[in-house]
Amino acid sequence: MQFALTDVPRILPEILLLVLALLVLGSDVFERWANTDAARTEQHRASASLAALGLGMILIIALIQSGYVYRLPDDAPINFLTNIVRNLQNGGPASELATTPILGAFATDDLTMIGRLVVIAAAFLTVLLTYDARPTANPGEFYTLIIGSTLGMCLMAGSSELIMTFLAIELTSIPLYVLAGYFRNDRQSTEAGMKYFLFGAMSSGILLYGMSLTYGYAATAAVTQGSTGNNLTQFERIRELVAQAGEPTVLLTLGMLFLIAGIGYKVTVVPFHGWSPDVYQGAPTPITAFIATASKVASFILLFRLLTTTFPVLTGAADVIIPVEASTFTGWTSLLALLAFLTLIVGNLAALPQTNAKRLLAYSSIAHAGFLLMGLVAWSASLAMDREAGIASLLYYLVAYTVMNLGVFGVLYVVDQHTRSDEISVLNGLARRNLGLAVLFTIFVFSLAGIPPLSGFFAKFYVFMAAWQAGAEWLVIVGLITTIISLYYYLRLLRAVFIVPPDTDAPIPTPRWMATSLVLSALLVIVLGLFPNIILTIIDNVQAVAGR
Amino acid sequence: MVPISYYIMLSAALFTLGVLGVLIRRNAIVVFMSVELMLNAANLALVAFALQRGGIDGQVLVFFVITVAAAEVAVGLALLVAIFRNKRTADVDEVNQLHG
Amino acid sequence: MTFELMMFLITAVVALTGGIGMVMFKNTVHSALFLLLNFFAISVLFLLLQSPFLFAIQLTVYAGAIMVLFLFVVMLLGAERIEDTTDKLAGQRWLALVLALILLIQSVAINLITGSNEPPMQELETLALLSDPATLGAELFTTYLLPFQITGIILLVGIVGVVVLNQRVRTAQDKGQIN
Amino acid sequence: MLELIWLIPLLPFVGFLLNALLVGRIGDAHTQERSAGYVAVAAVAAAFVLALVAFVQLGNLPEEERLVNVNLWTWINAGDLVVPFGLMFDPLTGVMTLLVTGVGTLIHIYSIGYMHGDSRVVRYFAYLNLFITMMLFLVMANNMLLLFLGWEGVGLCSFLLIGYWFERKSASSAAVKAFVVNRIGDAAILLAMMTIFLQFGTLNFFDMILDGAEVIGFVENAGAVAQQIVSVPGQDFRIGTIISFLLLIGVTGKSAQIPLFVWLPDAMAGPTPVSALIHAATMVTAGVYLIARTHPIFTDTTLGLVTWIGALTALVAATAAVAQWDIKRVLAYSTVSQLGYMVAAAGMGIYVAAIFHLLTHGIFKALLFLGSGSVIHGTHDTQDMRKMGGLRTAMPYTFVTYLIGAAALAGVFPLAGFWSKDEIVGHALTHTIPIFIILFLSSLLTAFYMGRQLALVFWGEQRDHSYHAHESGAVMWVPLVILAALTVVAGGLNLPGSHWLTDWLFPVMEEEAAEFKIVLGVVATLAAIGAGFGGWYLYAVRWAKRIKVDAKDPLYRGMGDIWDTMAEAWFFDTVYNKTIVPGYRSVAGFFAQVFDPEGIDGLVNGVGRAFGWASNGVRFFQNGYVRSYALAFFLGVVVIVGYLIVAL
Fold first, then answer.
1. Which end of chain D has the least Cβ crowding within 10 Å, N or C?
2. Where are the domains of chain C?
3. Cβ(D174)–Cβ(D162) under 8 Å?
4. In the predicted structure, residue D113 carries a pLDDT above the cut 80
């Protein structure tokens, strides 16, 4: 298997991200060299604007490539412009090439494309948020790390092979460790960085052990079947070998468990979630937003691809019951159902007494991971149609989750910039200090709480529906109950914003680009709620790829 | 020839030792060393499986792991140094300002 | 008992000693040295497993670069001091021990369940091919080209990260006037 | 023209947008206040006119064609789940739309006077317009999902408006309480929607064409499916029973029925026009509308339950209304009680009567609330009736209109309340005797507490002289007069003999006109007059001297604890506290916390505290030590692996 020239357009967004990262790395060098505030602001703005522009352009290129907005007809006239578009779209998910992953390692199907778009958009909005912020030290490096991490996430979304998976996770994580601890003179930030790092390193150990066991099973199966070829790390190959071997052994299941645990830490699933509240609270707010959204999206897509392509044999039921017959392990769906249950309970209950807004939202984000898992649990449905509903609901939820969390953390960041604190009490009387910001905040929080017609509502409704159809009724009921509980802490935030009088009536300014980022997120929250079809039609494409 | 399962068991034992180190040691550097031990244990199992299979892919994975581990160690130690500057300690238990 | 088995047993004992020593010894430098011992043992095991190339990089990268880095940081920070014997988390140690024991038993048990039917060993011809670094190299630049490139990016990002975290900038912020 | 019905909810929405985005930016506070009021009133009034036109046009269609579906766009198209963003207009929706926009317009006008001088009045009108929009979505939706949007939307506006005077602690906690309690009902509605979709494969009410394809509706096809039996281990249920039971839970939340009625009395912390519009005339009747809309899906089992819940709520709330001092709380419990009548009517299968009572009640209860608002306004924010008295001379318009409203509520011939309530009580006589007795008793209580209220507010001497009572301005009493006039004539909607409403709703309900029982009518009126007179006599003549500020009610002497129980609306936690020894608390701390008597309180804080206890347990593990997190991580792994080994 060789890398072909036609593969280049297929990974064009990734290549462009790399180029952008290198450009940004050097960007602040060309600005004034001084330690004055003005010079630092100048450096910061230079890097931020380059990063934002670049990410925006890559987003547009990826959109053109995807063909979701506009698909070049086959009989289009040939000219310079159409040639570019055609070449781009030939590398897109709709082309023939996309049916097989590049070198068996990197799939460029619709699932990857959606993951890419969400991740790059999240990075774009994050960078916009930071544009007007107090300048960071070494801005060029700061944005390079964000872009590098984005690249890793894109790779995670498309990874269809174990080595690639490991490398993509590391490429995502290493910059995030640094970013979480970026304010190295801030104790909370360094603490967040270290906790994230230690936990991440440990999890990658677990993940690797899971990989070795999975590989071991595949190797044993290959030897017994006399199969040859050096591609036992590909998801697809493992699935074939497992299928031919018949009864899956416990070794494979063990490997799968370790893999789930290793990725589970990234998607903040209880009991692998311990690091997340601390890191979310301690990390710089835009980084928290980025970790909570983009990294989770990529991880969920990876988890989905890994589980459904590698371990369809081990799917099982959506029930958590003691198996009646020996030797019937009920598979990863029941494991995930159990984890979803724990995640919902722990995430929502722990959020109740929090006094720090960031920490509260961290727990809320854990709780949302529980809802997201329900979309995966729906894979246990016997009908292909219901399984498709599961993946569609998962992807819709991921998109909605990303925009609303970026927004809500963004508002906190604006307030934080002004007040230098992220306790709930600093939100007091926000409605009087900046009504527009308060309204945006309300939109995001209501969406998180699942109030129609915002996208958060339909997201919840859809995963509930999918899980219900897959036979996880009990989980849906738990989900509904925890939704009611969650309302209590979301309302606490709103109560602070609208009801509790502030210490001071001094207005909180919203800088232009921060406001742009927030308004974009809010618009998406509303539009996706009112016209979910816009992306549901796109998501429909995924089912054809993943729905085997 | 040595049966492959011997290697696997040794690997399991080393992995467990690594886990134990993570759980009971308080010096962040040692915790990190224990993580390296876990990685090594996994590497051992990979190479053993690769031999049994007669394939090269296990070895390739190990190669990548070693390379990435180098990068990870560098970043990790840099973080440790940063936190040491702030707190004058490498004890993970002292780093617990964020909780609740 | 064949020579190979004997070699394996000796190295295995050394590796385990290294691991146990690393976990047990209170002094960080001692732990590091025991880990080094373990790395050596594992590199020997790689050799036994027909992987001379990995043997070499295990020695150079792990035992050479990484361990030196560890020791360097230990010395730099003066972090080699001995840990207190009192643990703030009561019961953590015992819980951890029990947990590790269970984990070990579980993994061994599972390996025993599945590992019983040992498949036949590979033929010598395959083994020779397998142990040739050229095979690995060729694979790296064809089938695994994409991951190989990504490794480069990871190293780059790692360097950037390290520089950012530890570069000394003479600013007001660093003198501790802010915060 | 009927294709343009989407303009009806759009107009108030435009009003909302104008008020929310534009009006707050122009001119000084005075200009803002005036223009906000005008914009809001104009938007709703225009919607009313449109609704009227649509209504007339619908009437011109042949009877079997009186169902218009207007799908604006395909809202959701995900596999099987195809839901349009679609509105409908049929006879039932028609009358609801008219009620919402008509009463809504009057209350908007009234608000201009009532809210005069309030500092955030622009926001108030914005919320009010948003509420009308959402309410219109609720009644005009042609599918469950859009109905749910309206359902949540009105809850949201109610939350915002109850907590409008958020400086008052009672207002903000009442708002939270209302929202959270309603959310319990909403969760049930969500479950109901899922079950409906799973069983019928659709969320639309009626068959229609969507994107050129035939789409079925579940209400239209309810008959066969609803009777199918599903087995839950140990028990067989009809599908319809499950769905309708879930819907019923939602109804008890929104329409304030037992056991979820507790939020409504507290909701009176909002401005009085809000109480009139949302918590009397429109939003709280959404539950009754929902039952009427989806009635084919209700099975006999659930309908029995519906009847009993309605009847018991009617009685419990009526007794509670007797024992209140706050002028608005009397009306609040009275609303709960009257909603009980409607729900009971729906349960007995006389949906037309339920809707009839919904309409008349919407009119006269709005009248009463606005009247009480006028009283509160004229007495400078006094709400305690012990501080009032003798207001009939100071506030003549308010007095006369209030008298008419009270008589209508009591069911005095020939006012609107007489006709609508009589239909329900009369049917109960042929349906189930105990229900009849409960409802009849409740109507006696109704007359009694209205007599008591009239006596306390308008008769006797002014008991507190800290204020000078005055009549409200024309902008406030004109709506009162209009509503009073409507109260007199609204009975004509469904007079025996003509029964126009029954005929009009026939395409939806397919119900025959009820037979009018003249004897019962006479007895009921006489009883109502008697009980009302009794209430008036006791409080205005007999005990007039014993009513003082902060004094106990004269009836308290004879009834003691029973009186307290009534005053607390038989509040379950009061009963707990009276009957269960304090030691019980330590044993079942959890329940003690849930059913804490003080507070919002009981429920919301109780839940918060009870879960707070649990969440502290969760937080215990989040102690900040990485090693603990790692331990939890590996504990998880080991337990799962252990499970795997056991399973093998």
1. N
2. 1-84
3. yes
4. yes
Distance (Å, whole) CA D476 – CA D487: 17
**C96 touching B (Cβ < 8 Å):** yes
CATH of the domain at B8: 1.10.287.3510
Confidence label for C1 from pLDDT (cuts 50, 70 and 90): low
pLDDT classification of D614: cutoffs 50, 70, 90: low
Whether the upstream peptide bond of residue A175 has omega within 30° of 0, thus cis, is no
* Closest Cβ–Cβ partner in A178, A191, A223 for B83: A191
| DSSP secondary structure string for all residues of D340-357 | HHHHHHHHTT-HHHHHHH
Domain count, chain A: 1
Which residue range is the domain that position B61 belongs to? 4-88
ipTM: 0.89
**Residue D498: pLDDT band by 50, 70, 90 thresholds?**
confident
Q: Which helix (H) or strand (E) holds D78?
A: strand D68-78
User: Is residue B98, in this structure, part of any structural domain at all?
Assistant: no
Contact status of D233 with chain A (Cβ, < 8 Å): no
Nearest CB among B38, B49, B96 relative to A216 is that of B49
- Residue C35 and residue B8: Cβ atoms within 8 Å? no
**A212 found inside a domain:** no
Contact call for A181 and C139, based on CB within 8 A: no
What's the rounded Cα separation, in Å, for the pair D450 and D409?
Answer: 8
Under the banding of pLDDT at 50, 70 and 90, the label for residue C58 is very high
Q: Which of D81, D134, D170 to mutate to test the interface with A (most CBs of A within 10 A)?
A: D81
Which three-class secondary structure string do you get for D6-50? CHHHHHHHHHHHHHHHHHHHCCCHHHHHHHHHHHHHHHHHHHHHH
Roughly what angle, to the nearest 10 degrees, separates helices A250-264 and A187-225? 160
CA-based radius of gyration for chain A = 23
C-alpha–C-alpha distance, residues B76 and A498, integer Å = 43
What's the average model confidence in pLDDT over D503-527? 82
Cross-chain residue pair B98–D631, CB shorter than 8 Å: no
Average pLDDT over residues D393-414: 89
Structural domain for A347, as ranges:
315-548
B67 touches chain C (CB under 8 A): yes
Residue B45 in contact with partner chain C when CB distance is under 8 A: no
Does A39 map to a domain?
Answer: no
pLDDT at residue C177, rounded to an integer: 37
Residue B19 touches partner D, C-beta closer than 8 Å:
yes
* Residue B24 domain flag: yes
Is residue A241 one of the residues assigned to a domain?
Answer: no
Dihedral sign for Cα atoms in the order A284, A289, A290, A295: positive
Note whether B42 contacts C: Cβ–Cβ < 8 A. no
Domain-located, residue A84? no
Q: Dump pLDDT digits (tens) for D348-376.
A: 988 999 999 999 999 999 999 999 999 98
Single-letter amino acid, residue A231:
N
Average pLDDT rounded to a whole number, residues A396-410? 95
The beta-carbon neighbor of D627 closest among B92, B99, B100 is B92
Residue B93 within any structural domain of the chain: no
C62–B66 CB contact, under 8 Å: yes
Options 2.60.40.10, 3.40.50.720, 2.60.40.2550, 1.20.120.1200; CATH of C1-84 = 1.20.120.1200
B87 vs C: CB within 8 A: no
Least confident residue range of A2-6, A304-308, D183-187, D554-558: D554-558
B-C contacts (CB, under 8 Å): 223
Whether D628 sits inside 8 A of A458 (CB atoms) is no
Among B22, B24, B97, the residue with its CB nearest the CB of D624 is B97
Query: Is some CB atom of chain A closer than 8 A to the CB atom of D529?
Result: no
Q: Nearest by CB to A349, which of D179, D193, D611?
A: D611
Q: Is the pLDDT of residue D249 over 80?
A: yes
Range list of H helices, D581-625: 583-587, 589-594, 601-621
C29 chain-B contacts, CB cut-off 8 A: none
